[in-house]
User: Which sequence fits this backbone?
């Protein structure tokens, strides 16, 4: 199964200070054609884990590989194979919707005809066609999030990193997002999805990482989590509450 790993994290300890690491010896993988749910309370270390994967933070210990290669072997190639949807949209206020898509295409070296085809398809899918020339300063949180999502889906990466993407989205946009992630997964893309909406994670994710206070308490398929926690009929939400309560008290 090693050759199927798109993302491989091994013994990762990290954070913002060597003296006070946030993460402690994390080891997990994301394989081709699967969606892995990164689950945890606020402050569990999810965002810090994502920042390490994106290369925004350096590990104190451990290693992160994408397609079998650490970031240090080729930063440009590493970054080109990741597409990121952040929790908080980061947009250029002076650039309109289409200019954001053009800028993304330029950074990822997407041909103009491909930009035209995929960009227009995404505008239609996320109901943003009439906003093509609008500036994001007039957008709601949900519309800004849609634009970030469209920019991410313009790319064909090896790995999608998706951080709390549902906040502010209307039900139709959430459906479009999940359908698009499912199609990407079926085409062999790996997806790491961080979310608090456990019912959605349970329905769409293939495996789960339960993170608590910077440590992995459990990981595996839902059935594997049930066996490990000795809760044979539990939902993901039930497992999460039980395991984090035990982890907190123990």
Assistant:
């Amino acid at each position: 199964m090693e050759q199927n790993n798109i993302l491989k994290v091994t013994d990762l300890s990290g954070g913002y200070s060597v003296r006070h690491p946030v993460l402690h010896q994390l080891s997990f993988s994301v394989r081709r054609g699967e969606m892995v749910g990164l689950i945890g309370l606020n402050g569990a270390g999810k965002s810090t884990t994502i920042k390490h994967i994106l290369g925004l933070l350096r590990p104190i210990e451990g290693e992160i590989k994408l397609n079998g290669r650490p970031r240090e072997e080729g930063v440009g190639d590493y970054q080109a194979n990741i597409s990121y949807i952040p929790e908080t949209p980061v947009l250029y206020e002076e650039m309109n919707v289409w200019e954001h898509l053009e800028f993304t295409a330029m950074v990822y070296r997407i041909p103009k005809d491909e930009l035209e085809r995929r960009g227009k398809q995404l505008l239609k899918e996320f109901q943003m066609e009439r906003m093509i020339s609008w500036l994001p300063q007039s957008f709601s949180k949900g519309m800004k999030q849609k634009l970030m999502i469209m920019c991410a889906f313009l790319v064909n990466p090896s790995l999608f990193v998706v951080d709390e993407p549902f906040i502010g989205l209307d039900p139709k946009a959430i459906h479009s997002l999940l359908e698009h992630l499912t199609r990407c997964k079926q085409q062999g893309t790996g997806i790491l999805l961080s979310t608090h909406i456990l019912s959605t994670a349970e329905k769409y994710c293939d495996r789960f990482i339960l993170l608590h206070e910077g440590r992995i308490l459990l990981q595996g398929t839902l059935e594997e989590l049930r066996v490990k926690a000795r809760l044979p009929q539990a939902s993901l939400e039930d497992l999460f509450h039980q395991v984090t309560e035990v982890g907190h008290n123990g």
Remarks:
- Residues 45 and 164 are 14 Å apart (CA to CA).
- The mean pLDDT is 92.
- Residues 171-186 form the longest helix (16 residues).
